[in-house]
Amino acid sequence: MILKTIFWILIGLILYTYFGYTLLLLIVKVIKKQSGRDTESLAPENLPELTLFITAFNEKDIVDQKMQNSLSLNYPKNKLKILWITDGSDDGTYEQVKKYPEADVHHTKERKGKTHALNRGMQFVQTPIVVFSDSNTLLGENALLEIVKLFYHNNTGAVSGEKRIKMTGKDKAVSTGEGIYWRYESVIKKLESDVYSTLGAAGELFAIRTELYMPVKDDAILDDFVISLNIAMQGYQIKYAPEAYAIESASLNITEEIKRKIRIASGAIQTLARTKKLLNPFKYGFLSLQYLSHKVLRWVLLPVSFLLIFILNALIVFFEHNTGAAFLFLFFAQIVLYFMVFIGWLFSNRKMRLKVFFLPYYLFIMNYSILAGTIRYLSGKQTVIWEKARRK
What pairing do the DSSP bridges indicate for beta strands 237-249 and 138-139? Predict the structure, then answer.
């Protein structure tokens, strides 16, 4: 009886995290009956000055593409400052950026990680809003205008853009799974933003009010998440602008994707350990529920839950009397699911049309990476220096 109770609790936990939380946000949104916010474009003369903040380490080959993209953005040129921090680069990145008079570039020979570069670079930001963007992502033409619209409201402290994965007709498992996952995440972020505040921001594209920036500890692994969370903890909201998008290619292969996700998982556990007070609903209200539902449950409980559910289900089926049809069905369903994971792995680096196998495989990789990342962080083996995942 105890095994069955624990089994159903874990099933409920997974269903709530992936589906129930989204349904809860929909219900709250309907109850609040929010009227559409006035996000009409401001007249060009009233638009605030922005700084497009780009950090880069040995990215010489993509400097031209990034600069051409930045200069083509639909925003008054006299109100857009482009700032590059190229600490540690020794491949000519600094010299390549210097060729562009529109760019303000600062460089030191020592490499101390992206977080240190962000902290150092903020001293050069003189505009009321700063937009952070990775050097390997391209922004949509109207991305900056879409972001500025949401800063029209004084309680908005940060705005997160949307990360989009560049897809092709017949794609590999890593591209398909990552693309589907980010579309799913986008739905949740939009609902969170409509209801109250989204949680965190993707480093590919997010903006903050410059005055709200709080220096991040140099050993922080997920700098973008920490920066945006710090703003939420100051009482400001993080809004989500799906039309302000950044496009990047998927990881080159599943090995590179796993490497990237393990690092992210290590950073997630580090951030959780340092932001435990966010779980105090008496101080942070609905934001605490959001943090628990969207982040804590996924990082801490889900990976272990998937493993325990299979073990418990097997014990119930093979060793308990009167097992019941539900347990037999779920055990068979899990075997089918893991078979799909195996097929996804088998074809992970091949192009095929049967994309139904890629989502279970990507889900498996995500949860495996969380477990591996947790172990790496607790063992002290994760450093702040980012080892870039190779992309297409």
Answer: antiparallel
The low-confidence residues of the chain, meaning pLDDT below 70, are 34-42, 167-179, 250-253, 348-357, 382-392
Question: What is the reported pLDDT for 236?
Answer: 95
- Give domain status of residue 83, yes or no: yes
Task: Give the whole-angstrom CA distance, residue 66 versus residue 78.
Answer: 19
Alpha-carbon distance of 35 to 387, in angstroms, equals 45
CA distance 165 to 392: 11
Residues 6+ apart with CB under 8 A from 56: 63, 84, 85, 86, 89, 93, 97, 135
Residue 95's domain is classified under what CATH number?
3.90.550.10
Whole-model pTM: value is 0.85
Q: What is the pLDDT of residue 39?
A: 46
Decide if 228 is inside a domain. Answer: yes
pLDDT of residue 1: 77
Overall domain count for the chain: 1
Return the closest-CA partner of residue 227 out of 130, 105, 296, 125: 130
Domain that holds residue 83: 44-251
The DSSP string of 357-374 is GHHHHHHHHHHHHHHHHH
SS3 (DSSP) at 200: coil
pLDDT at residue 44, rounded to an integer:
74
pLDDT computed for residue 327 by the predictor: 92
Distant-in-sequence, close-in-space partners of 201: CB < 8 Å, separation ≥ 6: 158, 159, 160, 161, 224, 225, 227, 228, 238
Which structure tokens are listed for 374?
């947790």
Q: What whole-number distance in Å separates Cα of residue 23 and Cα of residue 18?
A: 10
Determine, yes or no, domain membership for 226.
yes
d(CA 120, CA 105): 12
Q: Which amino acid is at 346?
A: L
C-alpha span between 161 and 163 (Å, rounded): 7
Q: How far apart are CA 60 and CA 378, in angstroms?
A: 35
* Helices (H), ranges, 161-200: 173-195
pLDDT of residue 172: 56
